[in-house]
Automatic annotation (TrEMBL):
Residues 56-78 are annotated as: Disordered. It is found in: Nucleus. The keyword Coiled coil does not apply. The keyword Transcription regulation does not apply. The gene is Rnpc3. It holds the Pfam family RRM_1. One of its GO terms (cellular component) is U12-type spliceosomal complex. Keywords: Nucleus, Repeat, RNA-binding. This is RNA-binding region-containing protein 3. Residues 115-198 form the RRM domain. GO terms for molecular function: pre-mRNA intronic binding; U12 snRNA binding. GO terms for biological process: mRNA splicing, via spliceosome.
Length: 212
């Protein structure tokens, strides 16, 4: 009775009303950021794919290297420097038009292919070492067989003066020598290179006539 009795108070509900709607300004900014993020992502992807394509990553066929060009020159590089190079041969060789002006090429015939070649119209000062310098490029001197087959016979006297017979390892080497050295100007005179005549076909023909 002395103290006042507290009045019964019912439970009060406390409610917080939060607006879930995002302000228009914030919403626009967030959309822009999302779009920018996507565009940056796709831009990154495009740049990386371009870099991959440019660098050749994943390509089956790589770009050709400069070594391919060197393969065409390997053959000439293998020839020792003590012999004439292909460039010098071509440089000092007469063209077909120029050959026609010389009487020595008037009725030119290469002859029947074999491993020996015949060279004529040689200058007086030509020596065996000069012929070796030119025709030695068609011989593999590391091979004992080819080295022994290489033979130079230069005629310096009599009717055969200014002519030479050169034995090469095989018919292929002789054909190449004829093609590249015919018309080469040595001491201001163009060489006439042909296949050396062989007496064997005539003998075979005579034998055939006898059998008949």
């Amino acid at each position: 009775d002395v103290f006042e009795q507290p009045q019964h108070v019912g439970h009060k509900k406390i409610e917080f009303h939060i607006n879930t709607d995002i302000p228009a300004v914030l919403q626009i900014n967030s959309e822009k950021e999302e779009k920018n993020g996507k565009s940056l992502y796709f831009k990154y992807l495009s740049t990386t794919t371009e870099e991959i394509n440019n660098t050749g990553f994943g390509r089956i066929f790589p770009a050709p290297s400069s070594n391919d060009k060197m393969e065409t020159e390997e053959e000439d590089d293998e020839i020792p420097s003590e012999f004439i190079s292909r460039k010098d041969l071509e440089k000092n060789r007469l063209s077909r038009e120029e050959m026609e002006k010389y009487s020595v090429f008037k009725n030119y015939e290469a002859g029947d292919p074999n491993c020996r070649i015949y060279v004529k119209n040689l200058a007086k000062q030509v020596q065996e070492k000069d012929l070796k310098f030119i025709f030695g490029r068609y011989v593999d001197f590391q091979s004992e067989v080819e080295r022994n087959m290489f033979d130079i016979r230069l005629m310096k006297e009599g009717r055969m003066k200014g002519q030479a017979f050169i034995g090469l390892p095989n018919e292929k080497a002789a054909a190449k020598a004829l093609k590249e050295a015919n018309g080469y100007v040595l001491f201001e005179k163009p060489m006439v290179v042909q296949f050396a005549r062989s007496a064997r076909p005539k003998q075979d023909a005579n034998e055939g006539k006898r059998k008949k």
